[in-house]
């Protein structure tokens, strides 16, 4: 039986070590990914690639939900089956990205605000009718000289809270994604402080907007060193600081935390998640909502060629199963083969 209430849907997505496949790349982003393997980004090629992922053998076992781009929610598979039904046949739930991208915050070169509240209720009504069970909205917080400002954090977290309320009114679980970007030379301690501040503000505003936390999922960054910092914190330190930050910032009745990979390598994203689950001591499920860290090996194997579909599916399934093991805290490097 597929779940029906918001609480059931949220718990279903992260049950038994399952996580989320983020396949909601915008047309521009997937064009860049395809360019890296010399494949033209046509609607047919995008359909073929995503259908290959959705029909992979590990979907049923390891993927509880798939975040889709608007185009994909409306597309049919090669045999005419709507792709959302292909996902459902794998015992996974289709979801949809509903934000409309970022623009400069108050004219800033470095701070961003996310667009999309205008007309969101109408879009959500349509997505609910199209069969989407959950939604996603991403906020972007950069760390740099004298940023993030409190105004930027407040603006983005208020938008996330208003979005979450609208999604729930339309029978869909909101995934709230406040991403503290890892680009920069900031320390892991700076990332910790900003992430804690962002999450505490977010959950304060979600409560004020009467959002049901039991029917919500959080998609945060991990607490990591900035990419340009000379000191790159090791796996255990990242795990300890991230778990500590979450414990101080998020309510215990949240069903699950599904991390973004945020530019980490495939293996780092898996190792960090596993180390956190080995620490334990929290009520929420700690799982994954990875895009590139689930897809990269499959994309590089596929290369746009039909004869590579099986091998590409195997590459995707391997990463999905490794991350399921990490979400259960039973992964180790030897399983990578």
Describe what you observe in this structure.
By secondary structure, this protein is α/β, with parallel strands linked by helices. The chain has a single domain (6-336), classed as Alpha-Beta Barrel (TIM Barrel). It is 46% helix and 15% strand. It has 13 helices and 10 strands. It has helices at residues 6-13, 27-35, 43-54, 59-62, 70-74, 83-89, 120-129, 150-169, 188-208, 235-249, 266-279, 292-302, 309-327, and strands at residues 19-23, 63-68, 93-97, 102-104, 112-114, 134-141, 173-180, 217-218, 256-259, 285-290. It has an 8-stranded parallel β-barrel, surrounded by 7 helices. Strand 9 (256-259), helix 11 (266-279) and strand 10 form a beta-alpha-beta unit. Helix 10 packs across helix 11. The longest helix has 21 residues, at 188-208.
Defining traits:
337 residues, alpha/beta, TIM Barrel, eight-stranded parallel beta barrel, two-stranded antiparallel sheet, 13 helices, 46% helix
Q: What is the CATH-assigned architecture?
A: Alpha-Beta Barrel
SS summary, helix count: 13
Largest sheet: spatial strand order:
1-2-3-6-7-8-9-10
> What is the CATH domain class?
Alpha Beta
What is the element string, with H for helices and E for strands? HEHHHEHHEEEHEHEHEHEHEHH
Cα-based radius of gyration, to the nearest Å: 19 Å
The fraction of residues assigned to DSSP E strands is 5-15%
Number of domains: 1
CATH topology: TIM Barrel
For the record, give the distance between the C-alpha atoms at the N and C termini, rounded to a whole number.
35 Å
Percent of residues in helices comes to 40-55%
The structure class reads: alpha/beta
